[in-house]
Write a structure and sequence with these properties.
By secondary structure, the protein is an alpha/beta fold. The protein has a single domain (17-279), classed as Phenylalanine Hydroxylase (Orthogonal Bundle), CATH 1.10.800.10. Helices cover 49% and strands 9% of the residues. The protein contains twelve helices and six strands. It has helices at residues 22-42, 45-54, 64-75, 88-96, 120-127, 134-152, 157-176, 193-196, 201-207, 218-222, 241-256, 272-279, and strands spanning 78-82, 99-103, 179-181, 188-190, 212-215, 234-238. The chain has a four-stranded mixed β-sheet. The protein has a two-stranded parallel ribbon with strand order 1-2. Helix 4 links the parallel strand 1 (78-82) and strand 2 (99-103).
């Protein structure tokens, strides 16, 4: 089942597990096996503990029901299969309800290094192990509550587009591409899922002299554009998930105070369906 497979129009679906081909399972096996030594070197300890807790099969694409059997007792989160793109508000509101919209397709063998859209390896091996950590899970729930606050504001559409852009940037530079100091404070580790699921970029994020790494600053993050089709040249560091949770609270205060209504332009582009998802909430 490749990333181009036609899937049902309804947003939330059952994982069509019997449709995966031997080639699909082989793609998962190759992705998983080559990430193992990278995780040991660069992943944060919460991720390593989480991926062990999930008991993922390194040889076959996991069934989401099996993932959830291990995940839900830990933090209440569960992976929820989706048919494709999830509009911003629905995605964030799923987090509020401890549900993670999960792509069921997997990248083709010729694109193991990079795929512009998420696939099941990115979602399950990159994101979900972090959802086993209680502090990180509460941060995601808090972020979903922040989105609900945004949806309740009666602001002009251009202000709403700015708010959505600011939230997307925050999510990108933390949940997707965040770095964290290790418990000793001497080394950096990866906790962002975009890095945790990338064979090349996880090492580049920590080792490359071409990457600028700074302690996270909310004003900088919400005004910093990004591009998805290249290794990230700028990354931000948090001290802990408690620190990250506090940043989400600060983000919501800035939202209420109007400080997200006029962030710098640039990427990401806010789709009309994302605007409508907040308006219709």
């Amino acid at each position: 089942m490749s990333a181009t497979l036609a899937i049902p129009e309804s947003l939330f679906i059952n994982q069509p597990y019997d449709h995966y081909s031997p080639e699909n399972h082989e793609a998962w096996r190759r992705l998983y096996s080559r990430m193992l030594p990278k995780w040991d070197l660069y992943a944060n300890p919460h991720f390593l503990k989480g991926i062990h807790s999930l008991s993922l099969d390194p040889h076959r694409i996991p069934r989401l029901e099996d993932v959830n059997r291990f995940l839900q007792p830990l933090t209440g989160f569960r992976a929820k299969a989706v048919s494709g793109y999830v509009p911003s508000f629905q995605f964030f509101d799923c987090l509020r309800q401890r549900e993670f919209p999960t792509t069921v397709t997997i990248r083709p063998p010729g694109q193991l290094d990079y795929l512009p859209e998420p696939d099941i390896f990115h979602d399950i091996a990159g994101h979900v192990p972090m959802h086993t950590d209680p502090h990180f899970a509460e941060t995601l729930v808090r972020f979903g509550e922040c989105a609900r606050t945004a949806a309740r504001l009666n602001v002009p559409l251009d202000h709403l587009a700015s708010i959505i852009r600011a939230m997307a940037r925050f999510f990108w530079f933390t949940v997707e591409f965040g770095l964290m100091r290790d418990p000793t404070g001497s080394d950096l580790k990866v906790y962002g899922s975009g890095l945790l699921s990338s064979f090349g970029e996880i090492e580049h994020a920590i080792e490359s002299p071409n990457v600028r790494r700074y302690p996270v600053q909310l004003e900088w993050v919400i005004n910093q554009s990004f591009e998805i089709d290249r290794y990230q040249p700028l990354l931000f560091i948090v001290d802990s998930f408690e620190h990250l949770y506090g940043l989400v609270g600060e983000l919501e205060r800035w939202l209420i105070d109007g400080r997200l209504s006029h962030v710098a332009g640039g990427e990401p582009f806010v789709r009309e369906q994302d605007l409508l998802s907040f308006r219709g909430a």
